[in-house]
Amino acid sequence: MSEPIENPPSDGLAEADAREVEPAPSWQDPATPLPQWTDLGGEVVHDSPWMSLTRHRATAPTGRTVDYGVVRPKSMATGVLPLHDDGTVTLVGQARFALGNYSWEMPEGGAPFGEDPFDGVRRELAEEAGLEARSWREAVRMELSNSITTERAVCWLAWDLRPVATAPDPTEVIAVARVPFMSLIAEIGRGAVRDSLTVATAYRAYHMAREGLLPGWLAHAMLTRV
Amino acid sequence: MSEPIENPPSDGLAEADAREVEPAPSWQDPATPLPQWTDLGGEVVHDSPWMSLTRHRATAPTGRTVDYGVVRPKSMATGVLPLHDDGTVTLVGQARFALGNYSWEMPEGGAPFGEDPFDGVRRELAEEAGLEARSWREAVRMELSNSITTERAVCWLAWDLRPVATAPDPTEVIAVARVPFMSLIAEIGRGAVRDSLTVATAYRAYHMAREGLLPGWLAHAMLTRV
């Protein structure tokens, strides 16, 4: 237990922004009041430049009061799947400390709150993959683990790619691979690519290619290149 | 700062299990040594029945040493998208404390380490959606946020459904909706369904329906019912 929370959590701005753009699905009855949790008070138990963890007493919609820990990352997770004209994609490989494994992913990085996530993801595409793109389309917006964290992600597809000089992050040793889009889909199915942003964005890219939501020549290359 | 870690983290078993089933993708050269992080030592700074947070000194593959906090949930995230014969799916709505919002999702829950995740997800399907299923297929396995957590998820598709009696969780007030599968896809595209497990599993279900990986009658119903 350490200092009480005197100000809104550092992701307060991002939460407010997000609420503005959170539509309700068509099947939710607008006349029915939504159940709510009540926060009885919290304190910061861990704080770093990347995240804080707060512990709360909170009353559930059922009336039951519990201790609730919330992990609050200080950035928006961003990612981009770079789609080459020939139906291949660029992926990056790196050692991940938390799980102690090696992970192949699309270029990703955290955009600190206050930075436009689109600026952040363009920087990651250059730093990690050595690419810039003239065409972008938003692919997915997700809440990554909504029972214990406030972490959000926004991911794009990008095409009309060209190489740019890279400037790697000082804690990253990055490998780069360029593989057919359908090989990425197959390796996700085998469990060889497991990063949630990459998994969701790759299947979303398949959906967009199949449903006419990407240029026809690009969708054709993605779905037929093996 | 509190007690040092004297034993492996409580998710050590799950991590060992996972490594056994983590294949490498076809493009990874088996002859090239993989870069690795070195853990110089850690301590538990937060511990609850649901997760711990450990703080480490760790040396990156580049040689740079940093402080690294790792969130370690004590369960495997599980979820199931219940596919009805008529091309509809059952979703559940609930208030989420961490983000302070209301979330529509497929039935989900944490399977504590030591419990078979498949037993856990069958329980959630009954408790949250009042359903049981005779046919199951694994859809996605993901690492939810691999730069700060060890959290993993495994999600299924289930069909041949029938109703069972429900026994709700004491902190959950659950709403249930049955909607066309393609309405779920559309609401994800609008940002009205944002849970990462649901997003990834829904697009994966679309991929499986399109690629002949589900029974033809079910795929037809999913893709045509509006």
Low-confidence stretches of chain A: 1-19
| CATH 2nd-level architecture of the largest domain in chain A | Alpha-Beta Complex
The percentage helix of chain A is 10-25%
> Which oligomeric state applies?
homodimer
Task: Compute the average pLDDT of chain A.
Answer: 90
| Strand ordering within the main sheet of chain A | 7-4-9-8
Derived from helix and strand composition plus strand pairing, the structural class of chain A reads alpha+beta
Major beta sheet of chain A, specifics?
4 strands, mixed
Element order, helices and strands of chain A?
A: HEEEEEEEHEEEHHH
Largest interface: A-B, 89 and 89 residues
CATH homologous superfamily heading of the largest domain in chain A: Nucleoside Triphosphate Pyrophosphohydrolase
As a whole number of angstroms, the C-alpha radius of gyration of chain A is 20 Å
Q: Helical segment tally of chain A?
A: 5
Shape of chain A: globular
Q: How many independent structural domains of chain A? A: 2
N- to C-terminal separation of chain A?
A: 55 Å
Strand content of chain A: 35-45%
The name of the CATH topology of the largest domain in chain A is Nucleoside Triphosphate Pyrophosphohydrolase
Number of strands of chain A: 10
What does this protein look like?
2 copies of one chain form a homodimer. With 226 residues, chain A is an alpha+beta fold. Chain A folds into 2 domains: 12-73, no CATH class; 75-224, Nucleoside Triphosphate Pyrophosphohydrolase (Alpha-Beta Complex). Helix content of chain A is 25%, strand content 38%. The first copy, chain A, has 5 helices and 10 strands; from the N terminus they run αβββββββαβββααα. In chain A, the strands form 3 sheets. The first copy, chain A, has a 4-stranded mixed sheet with strand order 7-4-9-8. In chain A, a hairpin with a 4-residue loop joins β5 and β6. Chain A is globular, with a radius of gyration of 20 Å. The model of chain A is unreliable at 1-19 (pLDDT under 50). The interface between A and B is large, with 89 and 89 residues.
